[in-house]
Amino acid sequence: MVKPCREKVLQQDNVYCVFDQEKISDFSPDMLSEKYWLKQNAVSGSAQGRGTTWFISHQEQQWVLRHYYRGGLIGKFNKDSYWFSGQKNTRAAREFSLLLTLEQLGLPAPHPVAYRVKRQGLFYRADLLSTRIKDAEDLVAILSRESLDKSLWADIGATIRRFHDHGIYHHDLNAHNILLDRQHKVSLIDFDRGEQRAVKQSWQQANMERLLRSFRKEQNKIPGFHWQEDNWHMLQQGYRQKN
Protein backbone atom coordinates (compact mmCIF):
# COMPACT_ATOMS: atom_id res chain seq x y z
CA MET A 1 0.00 0.00 0.00
CA VAL A 2 1.36 3.42 -0.96
CA LYS A 3 1.89 5.70 2.01
CA PRO A 4 0.15 9.08 1.83
CA CYS A 5 2.32 12.01 0.87
CA ARG A 6 3.42 13.96 3.94
CA GLU A 7 3.10 17.42 2.45
CA LYS A 8 4.77 20.34 4.15
CA VAL A 9 4.49 24.01 3.22
CA LEU A 10 7.41 26.42 3.34
CA GLN A 11 6.85 30.09 2.57
CA GLN A 12 9.55 32.76 2.39
CA ASP A 13 8.39 36.22 1.29
CA ASN A 14 7.07 35.78 -2.27
CA VAL A 15 8.20 32.14 -2.58
CA TYR A 16 5.73 29.38 -1.73
CA CYS A 17 6.85 25.74 -1.68
CA VAL A 18 5.27 22.37 -0.96
CA PHE A 19 7.36 19.22 -0.54
CA ASP A 20 6.99 15.59 0.50
CA GLN A 21 9.02 15.01 3.66
CA GLU A 22 9.25 11.27 2.96
CA LYS A 23 11.16 11.91 -0.24
CA ILE A 24 13.12 15.06 0.62
CA SER A 25 13.79 15.61 4.32
CA ASP A 26 16.52 18.23 3.76
CA PHE A 27 14.37 20.50 1.60
CA SER A 28 15.39 24.01 0.57
CA PRO A 29 13.56 26.26 -1.95
CA ASP A 30 16.85 26.49 -3.87
CA MET A 31 16.40 22.83 -4.81
CA LEU A 32 13.82 23.97 -7.35
CA SER A 33 16.56 25.70 -9.34
CA GLU A 34 18.99 23.98 -11.71
CA LYS A 35 21.74 26.37 -10.50
CA TYR A 36 21.63 24.73 -7.06
CA TRP A 37 22.12 21.24 -8.49
CA LEU A 38 24.82 22.36 -10.92
CA LYS A 39 26.81 23.72 -7.97
CA GLN A 40 26.32 20.38 -6.18
CA ASN A 41 27.53 18.47 -9.27
CA ALA A 42 24.26 16.54 -8.97
CA VAL A 43 22.98 17.04 -12.53
CA SER A 44 23.15 13.68 -14.31
CA GLY A 45 21.72 14.85 -17.62
CA SER A 46 19.14 16.99 -19.36
CA ALA A 47 16.60 16.95 -22.16
CA GLN A 48 15.36 19.68 -24.46
CA GLY A 49 11.70 20.35 -25.06
CA ARG A 50 9.84 23.61 -24.63
CA GLY A 51 12.56 24.29 -22.05
CA THR A 52 15.34 22.28 -20.46
CA THR A 53 14.39 19.34 -18.24
CA TRP A 54 17.11 18.54 -15.69
CA PHE A 55 17.88 15.06 -14.33
CA ILE A 56 19.03 15.14 -10.71
CA SER A 57 20.84 12.56 -8.54
CA HIS A 58 20.35 13.15 -4.81
CA GLN A 59 20.95 10.71 -1.95
CA GLU A 60 20.49 7.65 -4.20
CA GLN A 61 17.29 9.12 -5.64
CA GLN A 62 16.72 10.13 -9.26
CA TRP A 63 14.59 13.20 -9.87
CA VAL A 64 13.38 15.39 -12.70
CA LEU A 65 13.34 19.19 -12.40
CA ARG A 66 11.12 21.14 -14.77
CA HIS A 67 10.33 24.83 -15.09
CA TYR A 68 6.90 25.76 -16.46
CA TYR A 69 7.06 27.42 -19.88
CA ARG A 70 4.28 28.71 -22.06
CA GLY A 71 3.77 27.29 -25.53
CA GLY A 72 2.15 28.53 -28.71
CA LEU A 73 2.03 32.11 -29.88
CA ILE A 74 1.79 33.62 -26.41
CA GLY A 75 5.03 31.86 -25.45
CA LYS A 76 6.92 34.01 -27.94
CA PHE A 77 6.05 37.12 -25.91
CA ASN A 78 5.67 35.70 -22.39
CA LYS A 79 7.73 32.56 -21.92
CA ASP A 80 7.04 31.59 -18.29
CA SER A 81 4.79 34.05 -16.45
CA TYR A 82 1.22 33.12 -15.47
CA TRP A 83 -1.72 34.99 -13.97
CA PHE A 84 -1.99 34.27 -10.24
CA SER A 85 -5.46 33.29 -9.01
CA GLY A 86 -4.52 31.42 -5.83
CA GLN A 87 -1.87 28.87 -4.87
CA LYS A 88 -4.10 25.84 -5.49
CA ASN A 89 -4.75 27.06 -9.05
CA THR A 90 -1.10 27.33 -10.08
CA ARG A 91 0.16 24.91 -12.70
CA ALA A 92 2.67 23.42 -10.28
CA ALA A 93 0.17 22.87 -7.45
CA ARG A 94 -2.34 21.21 -9.76
CA GLU A 95 0.22 18.86 -11.31
CA PHE A 96 1.71 18.00 -7.91
CA SER A 97 -1.78 17.16 -6.64
CA LEU A 98 -2.57 15.01 -9.68
CA LEU A 99 0.74 13.13 -9.41
CA LEU A 100 -0.11 12.44 -5.77
CA THR A 101 -3.46 11.00 -6.88
CA LEU A 102 -1.70 8.80 -9.47
CA GLU A 103 0.71 7.57 -6.81
CA GLN A 104 -2.15 6.67 -4.46
CA LEU A 105 -3.96 4.86 -7.31
CA GLY A 106 -0.81 2.87 -8.10
CA LEU A 107 -0.65 4.12 -11.68
CA PRO A 108 2.73 4.06 -13.50
CA ALA A 109 3.75 7.72 -13.48
CA PRO A 110 6.31 9.95 -11.72
CA HIS A 111 5.75 10.65 -8.03
CA PRO A 112 5.62 14.23 -6.71
CA VAL A 113 8.59 15.49 -4.71
CA ALA A 114 8.23 19.29 -4.44
CA TYR A 115 7.08 22.42 -6.21
CA ARG A 116 7.84 26.13 -5.98
CA VAL A 117 5.74 29.16 -6.90
CA LYS A 118 7.38 32.59 -7.07
CA ARG A 119 4.93 35.49 -6.94
CA GLN A 120 5.69 38.68 -8.87
CA GLY A 121 2.81 41.07 -8.41
CA LEU A 122 -0.24 39.63 -10.15
CA PHE A 123 1.80 36.90 -11.84
CA TYR A 124 3.87 33.87 -10.90
CA ARG A 125 6.54 31.51 -12.18
CA ALA A 126 6.76 27.89 -11.09
CA ASP A 127 8.94 24.77 -10.95
CA LEU A 128 8.25 21.10 -10.22
CA LEU A 129 10.46 18.32 -8.88
CA SER A 130 9.30 14.73 -9.43
CA THR A 131 10.80 11.26 -9.42
CA ARG A 132 12.43 9.92 -12.58
CA ILE A 133 11.26 6.66 -14.18
CA LYS A 134 14.31 4.41 -13.88
CA ASP A 135 16.03 3.09 -17.03
CA ALA A 136 13.27 4.34 -19.31
CA GLU A 137 13.10 5.97 -22.75
CA ASP A 138 10.26 7.64 -24.56
CA LEU A 139 8.60 5.97 -27.54
CA VAL A 140 9.99 8.46 -30.06
CA ALA A 141 13.56 7.60 -29.07
CA ILE A 142 12.85 3.87 -29.16
CA LEU A 143 10.92 3.86 -32.43
CA SER A 144 13.63 5.95 -34.06
CA ARG A 145 15.90 2.89 -33.92
CA GLU A 146 13.68 -0.21 -33.61
CA SER A 147 10.15 -1.56 -33.86
CA LEU A 148 7.98 -2.96 -31.07
CA ASP A 149 6.23 -6.31 -31.09
CA LYS A 150 2.48 -6.74 -30.92
CA SER A 151 2.39 -7.49 -27.20
CA LEU A 152 4.17 -4.25 -26.33
CA TRP A 153 1.73 -2.20 -28.40
CA ALA A 154 -1.10 -3.95 -26.57
CA ASP A 155 0.56 -3.15 -23.21
CA ILE A 156 0.76 0.52 -24.15
CA GLY A 157 -2.94 0.56 -24.99
CA ALA A 158 -3.85 -1.31 -21.80
CA THR A 159 -1.81 1.13 -19.68
CA ILE A 160 -3.57 4.15 -21.18
CA ARG A 161 -6.87 2.40 -20.51
CA ARG A 162 -5.93 2.05 -16.81
CA PHE A 163 -5.50 5.82 -16.58
CA HIS A 164 -8.75 6.46 -18.44
CA ASP A 165 -10.68 4.00 -16.26
CA HIS A 166 -9.68 6.15 -13.27
CA GLY A 167 -10.78 9.30 -15.11
CA ILE A 168 -7.22 10.56 -15.60
CA TYR A 169 -7.09 13.07 -18.44
CA HIS A 170 -3.63 13.67 -19.95
CA HIS A 171 -3.63 17.06 -21.65
CA ASP A 172 -0.73 16.24 -23.98
CA LEU A 173 -0.83 12.50 -24.61
CA ASN A 174 1.81 11.96 -27.29
CA ALA A 175 4.62 9.57 -28.18
CA HIS A 176 7.17 11.61 -26.20
CA ASN A 177 5.17 11.24 -22.99
CA ILE A 178 4.96 7.43 -23.06
CA LEU A 179 8.00 5.61 -21.63
CA LEU A 180 9.23 2.03 -21.72
CA ASP A 181 11.84 0.81 -19.24
CA ARG A 182 14.27 -2.09 -19.72
CA GLN A 183 11.65 -4.56 -18.47
CA HIS A 184 9.19 -3.09 -21.02
CA LYS A 185 7.00 -1.57 -18.31
CA VAL A 186 4.91 1.30 -19.68
CA SER A 187 4.65 4.66 -17.87
CA LEU A 188 3.14 8.04 -18.68
CA ILE A 189 4.81 11.36 -17.86
CA ASP A 190 4.16 15.13 -18.04
CA PHE A 191 0.76 15.73 -16.46
CA ASP A 192 0.82 19.52 -16.74
CA ARG A 193 -2.80 20.68 -17.20
CA GLY A 194 -4.02 17.13 -16.64
CA GLU A 195 -6.88 16.39 -14.25
CA GLN A 196 -9.22 13.72 -12.94
CA ARG A 197 -12.54 13.78 -14.78
CA ALA A 198 -15.75 11.80 -15.00
CA VAL A 199 -15.13 8.40 -16.59
CA LYS A 200 -16.41 7.37 -20.05
CA GLN A 201 -16.76 10.80 -21.57
CA SER A 202 -15.82 12.12 -25.03
CA TRP A 203 -12.46 13.36 -23.73
CA GLN A 204 -11.12 9.79 -23.76
CA GLN A 205 -11.61 9.45 -27.52
CA ALA A 206 -10.09 12.90 -28.06
CA ASN A 207 -7.08 11.80 -25.97
CA MET A 208 -6.55 8.78 -28.22
CA GLU A 209 -6.95 10.81 -31.40
CA ARG A 210 -4.29 13.21 -30.15
CA LEU A 211 -1.93 10.29 -29.61
CA LEU A 212 -2.59 8.96 -33.11
CA ARG A 213 -1.78 12.38 -34.61
CA SER A 214 1.46 12.33 -32.63
CA PHE A 215 2.59 9.01 -34.13
CA ARG A 216 1.76 10.21 -37.64
CA LYS A 217 3.63 13.47 -37.06
CA GLU A 218 6.78 11.66 -35.90
CA GLN A 219 6.54 9.23 -38.83
CA ASN A 220 6.52 12.14 -41.27
CA LYS A 221 9.34 13.91 -39.48
CA ILE A 222 11.83 11.13 -38.69
CA PRO A 223 13.33 9.03 -41.53
CA GLY A 224 13.02 5.31 -40.81
CA PHE A 225 10.62 5.81 -37.90
CA HIS A 226 9.43 2.32 -36.89
CA TRP A 227 5.70 2.92 -36.76
CA GLN A 228 2.88 1.85 -39.08
CA GLU A 229 -0.90 2.21 -38.98
CA ASP A 230 -1.15 -1.48 -38.04
CA ASN A 231 0.66 -0.66 -34.80
CA TRP A 232 -2.17 1.68 -33.90
CA HIS A 233 -4.67 -1.16 -34.28
CA MET A 234 -2.50 -3.29 -31.97
CA LEU A 235 -2.49 -0.48 -29.39
CA GLN A 236 -6.26 -0.12 -29.66
CA GLN A 237 -6.75 -3.85 -29.11
CA GLY A 238 -4.88 -3.53 -25.82
CA TYR A 239 -6.88 -0.43 -24.93
CA ARG A 240 -10.21 -2.15 -25.54
CA GLN A 241 -9.26 -5.17 -23.42
CA LYS A 242 -10.42 -4.93 -19.84
CA ASN A 243 -7.48 -5.01 -17.40
UniProtKB/TrEMBL annotation:
The active site is at D172. It comes from the Bacteria. It is found in: Cell inner membrane. Its EC number is 2.7.1.166. Its main location: membrane. It is a peripheral membrane protein. NCBIfam families: PRK01723.1. This is 3-deoxy-D-manno-octulosonic acid kinase. It comes from Thalassomonas haliotis. The gene is kdkA.
